[in-house]
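User: tokens in, sequence out, please.
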């Protein structure tokens, strides 16, 4: 009789461990999905997307940014001729 009770306890412990493991795996998958959505939604600004009037090929040197631009940056400073 004692042997049968011991087997039931082992079975219940194994079932409990499977349930807890399933919950942990589910939480990890949800966390990974949240991180994936977070990093996929980050907008990255590339230098290729700059407008022609803000290109480094022409314009005045903006000492604030260290680039050539159209001279219309309200916070930039430009050298006077």
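Assistant: Sequence out:
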């Amino acid at each position: 009789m004692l042997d049968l009770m011991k087997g039931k306890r082992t079975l219940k412990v194994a079932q409990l461990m499977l349930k807890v493991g399933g919950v942990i795996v589910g939480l990890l998958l949800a966390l990974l999905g949240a991180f994936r959505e977070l990093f996929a939604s980050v907008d990255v600004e590339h230098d290729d997307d700059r407008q022609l009037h803000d290109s480094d090929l022409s314009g005045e040197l903006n000492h604030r940014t260290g680039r050539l631009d159209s001279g219309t940056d309200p916070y930039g400073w430009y050298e006077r001729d």
